[in-house]
Design goal:
The chain contains twelve helices and twelve strands. It has two domains: 119 residues, Rossmann fold; 181 residues, NAD(P)-binding Rossmann-like Domain (Rossmann fold, 3-Layer(aba) Sandwich), CATH 3.40.50. The strands form two sheets. A seven-stranded parallel sheet has the order 8-7-6-9-10-11-12, with helices on both faces. A five-stranded parallel sheet has the order 2-1-3-4-5. Helix 5 links the parallel strand 4 and strand 5. It is of the alpha/beta class.
Length: 320
């Protein structure tokens, strides 16, 4: 079986390898594996020529690419989101498409609170200015407002695996948790209240976005939504960059209408140099790392191998 991985470095980095795929016993036939660290759009067709299986993280697999790749029978997306593949075209051509569900739940939820605690406790601020502590006239040195999470309201948009994990951690901190979700109230975790979007905007001290990007959720955070939020609110986005209008968020930060914006995702990645969030005050950006703990990447790799084995055995799993 000829297998091509188009952008393997993002998963393995420098501490994992694709060796488990080369040696997977369950594939039942030898694997001719080619791994490219990265692939440009104009290189895709040439690199997957003759391949039965292609694995991709962010490299697009369009209908045009499938049409030029008659041997292609399997596309494994190395992520949970699969918008990089024209799934309708794949189904029409009889090509199996799989994804990697729920591999990064704990890691993403962890980063949500890393961002939140950095804002409420000014962790980076004090660590970077530690040399000023010796000149303090007191045993402590405090020049920012420090905030306790207990008793505050965390609103979550989207209560899937990650949203549910965030809700449970928030409850452990003693926070009131609201959820904007399609789930019925009786199906929610203990301590989580179902809320409308309007209520979430109005009552949140912290608003965390965990919904998928769809036409109805694109830019759900815009100037109108921000105007309904408390000026003391903290907005966190570890979902998808286009869930927010970045220009509107930047303006809200500059005008004092939003206390802080924490994000691990942007509308374009890597961002353009003129992205307004790069220069906005109280804007805390991480470069799409929430999913990338070693443990999460190891799970992703293992599931990717299992997906390919299941396909080869004739009973594909995690299909989309």
């Amino acid at each position: 079986m000829k297998v091509v991985i188009l952008d393997g470095f993002s998963v393995t980095q420098s501490d994992l390898t694709w060796e488990p795929l080369s040696n997977a016993a369950g594939l039942q036939k030898p694997v001719e594996l080619t791994v490219y660290p990265r692939t440009r759009a104009d290189e895709t067709i040439g690199r997957i020529a003759g391949a039965e299986a292609v694995l991709t993280n962010k490299v697009l697999i369009t209908d045009e690419i499938m049409a030029a790749s008659p041997a292609l029978r399997y596309i494994g997306v190395l992520a949970t989101g699969y918008n990089v593949v024209d799934v309708e075209a794949a189904h029409r051509r009889g090509i199996v498409v799989t994804n990697i569900p729920a591999y990064s739940t704990d890691s993403v939820a962890q980063l949500v609170f890393a961002h939140l605690l950095n804002v409420t406790n000014s962790v980076a601020h004090y660590a970077e200015r530690r040399s000023e502590w010796p000149s303090s006239p007191d045993f402590c040195w405090i020049d920012t407002q420090l905030t306790e999470l207990a008793g505050k309201t965390l609103a979550i948009r989207g209560l899937g695996n990650i949203g549910t994990k965030v809700a449970r951690i928030a409850a452990a901190f003693g926070m009131r948790v609201l959820a904007v979700t399609s789930r019925e109230p009786e199906a929610l975790p203990v301590g989580v209240e179902k809320a409308t979007w309007e209520t979430a905007l109005a009552e949140a001290d912290v608003l965390s976005l965990h919904c998928p990007l769809t036409p109805s959720t694109r830019e759900i955070i815009n100037a109108e939504a921000l105007a309904r939020m408390r000026s003391s609110a903290i907005l966190i986005n570890t979902g998808r960059g286009p869930l927010v209008n970045e220009a509107d968020v930047a303006e809200a930060l500059r005008s004092g209408r939003l206390a802080a914006y924490c994000a691990d995702v942007l509308s374009t990645e890597p961002p353009a140099a003129d992205n307004p969030l790069l220069s906005a005050p109280r804007c805390f950006l991480t470069p799409h790392i929430a999913w990338a703990t070693r443990e999460a990447r190891q799970r992703l790799l293992s599931i990717a191998v299992d997906n390919l084995i299941a396909y080869a055995a004739g009973h594909p799993q995690n299909t989309v």
